[in-house]
Write a structure and sequence with these properties.
The chain is an alpha/beta fold. Helices cover 32% and strands 23% of the residues. It contains 15 helices and 21 strands. The strands form four sheets. The chain has a nine-stranded mixed beta sheet with strand order 8-9-7-10-11-12-13-14-15. A six-stranded mixed beta sheet has the order 16-17-21-18-19-20, with helices on both faces. It is globular, with a radius of gyration of 23 Å. 51% of the residues are buried. It comes from Candidatus Ruthenibacterium merdavium.
Length: 454
């Protein structure tokens, strides 16, 4: 973050009677240094107001709080009704100082992977800032904006949400010149009730788009293909199946721990592309990034070539070979759509032995949870999975359906048992998918499994 006047940073929130210089904005008191502005967030586990006085002792420039704080002078506190909204407003004020080409990414599934493909492409053309990890909420997105400076030529901002109105706030702060909506799936059904409401929430990204900005949408998705796009944005489509899409992928084939395909662009022709990732869903994420970059005027040949620079983050479909067993680590999060995509990637792996799927509960599905988990067994059968190892209460539905299908299944009470089962069952030449919602902590299974010796 470049140093900025507190009154400029907090424009619209209030006036500091005594202006001061701010060099960082922090919500974690442990990170506060001299001239940091500390924002008191009240969460489920702790309340930032408890640490405000400590932040001032550490040299904080001031405090943003919902109420006066004992031990902090009134002149050092700016009151805000909602500190999260204050974070977004400060992000907008800071972002307005700089003029990179900024793009937004949202969707039910594939946001982070698409963001990483966008970063790979835009980085080939200049200095690029991206959202770190999946910091895509009211705190994470402003923190990304605070990393922009005069040297930033491009910025790729991931935008997530839990309900209606949230992406509107983020996009109005970021003011993107282009955006991608990856797909509309079943994530957040518990909060929003219907996929149509999810579509409404994701389409809010258009609210911050400038006149003529490209909106890149998935033409293979049943809701997006017919979605009404606001007149001030330019509709651009990508697909594998839909032959009318502006950008398509054809001749998809596995190739040396990655995927090679023909990228067909109505405007710019045909390119042979390699990405270091497996599965059609990764191909879709890649071509959406290409579509956005080229519709913003970047060279199509360089953009297509840059897709090969993609790097996985965290445990998102990262391929690890352990004692001859090919393990597809994909345990960061899960939804019905991403589960099917992960199983499709497992199916596409060239293995000499069995395909084993270690699957756990999917969260935030509401009334759809029971049926969605039952359908996982069908997806396993379709992907030629030889053995499903299941963990979680919801996965009991999948186990029940697997029995009906005659699919071999082992139910485990916890992650330790799942790791032990995988160690006993997996052999040299097998392919393994490990996937569940993040709250299932499936990284524990991987860590324990890698510690074991055959």
């Amino acid at each position: 973050m470049r140093p900025i006047s507190a009154n400029e940073l907090c424009k619209g929130l209030g006036i500091w009677e005594k202006d001061r210089l701010v060099t960082s904005v922090e919500t974690d008191s442990r990170k506060v240094e001299e001239n940091s502005l500390f924002v008191c967030i009240q969460g489920e586990r702790t309340d930032g107001h408890r640490y405000a006085a400590q932040a001032m002792r550490q040299g904080a420039a001031g405090i943003i709080a919902q109420h006066p704080v004992e031990g902090v002078a009134d002149e050092d506190v700016l009151l805000a009704a909602d500190p999260l909204d204050a974070m977004i407003a400060m992000g907008a004020n800071y972002r307005a100082r700089f003029s990179p080409v900024l793009v937004g990414v949202t969707g039910s599934v594939g946001k982070t992977t698409t963001k990483e493909f966008c970063h790979a492409v835009f980085s080939a053309f200049g200095s690029t800032v991206k959202t770190l990890g999946n910091q895509n909420n009211e705190i994470g997105m402003p923190n990304t904006l605070f990393r922009i400076d005069e040297t930033t030529e491009y910025a790729v901002i991931e935008m997530g949400m839990q309900g209606l109105g949230e992406i509107h706030k983020l996009t109005m702060a970021a003011q993107p010149q282009g955006a991608i909506i990856t797909m509309i799936g079943q994530s957040h059904l518990e909060q929003l009730g219907t996929r149509e409401n999810i579509l409404r929430a994701k389409m809010e990204i258009c609210d911050g788009l400038c006149e003529g900005a490209p909106l890149v949408i998935n033409a293979d998705n049943d809701l997006l293909v017919n979605a009404q796009v606001p007149p001030h944005v330019r509709r651009v489509t990508f697909a594998i199946e839909n032959q009318n899409a502006d950008v398509r992928a054809e001749q998809i084939r596995k190739h040396n721990n990655g995927t090679r395909f023909a990228l067909v662009d109505k405007d710019h022709g045909k390119f042979d592309v390699f990405i270091p990732a497996m599965g059609d869903h990764n191909v879709m994420d890649a071509i959406s990034a290409y579509a956005l970059a080229t519709r913003l005027g970047l060279d199509p040949i360089r953009a297509a070539r840059a897709l090969s620079n993609y790097e996985t983050t965290g445990q998102r479909q990262k391929l690890v070979v352990h004692h001859g067993i090919s393990v597809l680590e994909d345990c960061y999060n899960a939804s019905p759509d991403s589960m099917r995509a992960g199983l499709q990637a497992l199916h596409s792996m060239e293995v000499a032995g069995r395909r084993i799927a270690v699957l756990g509960d999917m969260f935030e599905l509401g009334a759809a949870a029971q049926q969605a988990h039952r359908e996982l067994a069908d997806a396993c059968a379709k992907a030629n999975v030889s053995l499903m190892i299941a963990v979680g209460e919801h996965m009991r539905q999948a186990v029940e359906r697997a029995a009906e299908l005659g699919l071999a299944t082992i139910y485990c009470d916890d992650n330790e048992q799942a790791a032990m089962t995988l160690w006993k069952e997996a052999k040299d030449g097998d392919g393994v998918l490990v996937k569940a919602s993040h709250g299932m902590a499936f990284e524990q299974i991987l860590e324990r499994f890698y510690q074991m010796e055959k």
